[in-house]
Structures are given as structure tokens and as C-alpha cells.
Amino acid sequence: MRLPETDRGRLLLLLALAAAVTAFTATVPLLRDWFDLRVYYGTIDHWVHHGGRVYDYRVPDTPYGFTYPPFAAVAMLPMALTGLHTAIALALLLNLAALALVLRLLAGREWRRHGWYGVGLTLCVLALFEPLRDTISFGQVNILLLALVLVDAHLLATGRDRWAGVGIGLAAAVKLTPALFIGLLLVTRRWRAAGIATAVAVGATGLAALIAPDASRFYWTTALWDTTRVGRLDYVSNQSLQGVLARLGVEGKAVWAIVVLLVLAVWVRRVRRAGDWRTAFALTGLTACLVSPVTWVHHLIWLIPSFVILIRAGHIRIASTLYAVMCTSVVWIWFHDASGLDGFVGSNLYVWITLGLLLWLPTGQRRLPARSTNDTPPAPSAAAPTTAAATSQPGTPPSPSEAAAATAGRTPGPGRGRARSASSEPTGSTRPAAANPQSSRSRASS
Questions:
Q1: Which of 85, 197, 277, 317 is 20 to 30 A from 157, comparing alpha carbons?
Q2: How far apart are CA 143 and CA 81, in angstroms?
């Protein structure tokens, strides 16, 4: 099939695709009716206007309430100045702006080559991606957190890392899952960035403790350890390793801890071989989804960078196939019964995709040298140009060792650090006893 080559043909194609995507999203997966945003808004309203406590609020006629750290509630305080519909509109605009930033950071300068036509096709394809559909329809914060983390990846990749770590620290203060990116900075010996990220996360958490001391005390001593507040671990939307074990009936934490340690060991090895920061951050997002006790389908927004890495590496068919699977909502087929071999494979399909990407996502061909303990690059040597000029005769290609020496330190990546150029919810059985808001056929929360 040949794509249209004229602007008129491209516009007609985009309009047809937009109509098809709209029809699909309006009929196949039922919308979530901003359920999570209603949780956020109700919590803030209950806290500010009615003198209630943050973690006591429940959405009427449901057991669901606020489950994030207290700083997330503090960051959402501006909602107290708006009505619900205004909050929904603002959340939608913020999500779209964050998505635009994510696409810009992942695509780099290449987005200019395709213009409005490429952007339109990309948006149509993204609109089908179940984690993104759910994130927007729930009114979730996943895209905002992804944008914060990718800003740090961009700063590290371009060598402008003075403020690298701020985004990761803020994301970790809002949700615990992004804290693994601080681990990435430690593994790659980016001590300054890791220190900044930790300081920002601790500072934001301390600010929340000053503003809401009772909520902070309750969260860190009680709510954090109560998994029933989040939802049933065996619920089919929980596409984490813990979800797999729960659907198998494995209730003990020991097995889960062993599996998590194995996955983290694989992650450390793969990150150290990653040839660039985009790949390292993609691998970390995959690992965070796997090791988190609860990874609802909409949390899998962290897989988007991995698909970009696959496409950049030329594995377009693989990326397209895996992406298409994650547009189908196929795991919900086993919503009522995840038993048997088909249930084991099908209900955990997104977990297998995430694990497969962690194991086989293209990385650098060799292990990058370890990062120096000093984050400050050495001053350019005045003798460097003379040395380089004397290394090989004019017109003679440099030897491999000379080429390696000439390029050392100029490829930003997890092992090298900054560029160094001379010029520069409730647990229970698999079959739910009652309607669950996480169902694809009912309003959901996480």
C-alpha cells in the first residue's frame, strides 16, 4: 500500500484515520469518566473546604481514595480554586502539553523531517495505545511524570546536566515508582545528579510534612504499607511481576522478592551496556513497571520510550507488532477467570512484553567504561589539537586505536556521563466478588 504523496491526499488520510480512531475509542474501550481525577479533586475539596483528612476521603459509593504520597496532594492544591469541570479541562491540557514534550524529547530534531503529516500520524497511533488512552481518560498523572524524567534524560544526553535530577526528584515525590531512576543515576555513577534528585525528593516530602503533618505521618507509617488501599494484587489490570504471582496464587513475599532481585540484576547489567541515556531511561522505565507491586495498565506509559528505541534501531516490525498488541485491551479477556495455561499467558501478556523488552531492547555493542567519581570534566588541553594532528599523516585514515582516543568522552551515555568535547487495590480471588472500578466495562481507579 502506497501512502499519499500530495498534501491533499495526506490530509484526507489523516482525517480518515482520525475518524477511525475516534470511532474505536468511543465504542471498543469504554471511557473511564475521569475517575482518578475525581479522586484527586474530591480529596483536595474534602481536605481544604471541609476540614477532612487527606487519606480519609472516599469517592461516593466506592472504597477508593487517595493513595499517593502527601506531596502529590500538596501539588494538587490549586484544584481547590476551581470547579470539577475546570479541573478536568486543565488536566487534559496539561496531559496534552506533557505528551507534546515527551514526543519532542524522544524524537529529537527528527520531528522536523516529517512535519504536520508525521505529527498527525503519530497522534493517531498514540491515541490507540491502551496505557495512554487510560491515562488521559482516568485523568492520571503518568504523562506528566514521564515528561519530568525525560527532561533529565535530555539534560544528561546533551551534557547540560547542571540541573539534572530535579525532574526525577519531583516525580519520585509524587509517586514512588520513578524513584528507581535515582537508582539509575547511582548505578551509572552520576553522583551529582543522584544527589540533586534525592535532595529534591526529600525536600518536597519535607515540605509536604510541614503543610500536612498528620497526613504525612499516616502515609509513611500506615497507608504506604496497606496494599488493600490500592486494590487487589491479582486484579488483571495489575501487569507487574507481583500481579503474575498473585494470579498464580503465590501469596508469600519471599518469592516476589527473589524475582525482583533477579530482574534488578538484569537491569543493572543492561543499563551499564546502554550506549545512550535514552536507552538507559527506557530500560529503567521497563524495570520500574516490573518490580512495582502494583502496575496498572495505564502505568505502562513508561513503555513508550522503548518503542522509540526499537524503531530507531530498525526493528520496526517488532515494535509495530508489540505496540498493536498493547492497543487491543486483550488482557481484559481474562478479567473474570485467569486460570489455566491460556489465562497464565493471556492475562499477563503486557508483563511478558515488558519483560521481553527489558531482556532484548537494543543497547550498545560493548560495555561502556565506568564513570569517574568526579562529575566535572577536565579542562581542554591546549596540546590536544597538536597531538591529534601528529597522530596520523594527512590523507591517512587513523587506526582504530587512534579513532577511539579521538572520540573518547564525546559520546554521552550512562557509562561515560556528560559530553566532553574540546569546544565545550483490595486483595481477593481472581474472580471478583463485585464490580471493580478497574474493569474495562466499568469506571476505574488506581
A1: 317
A2: 23
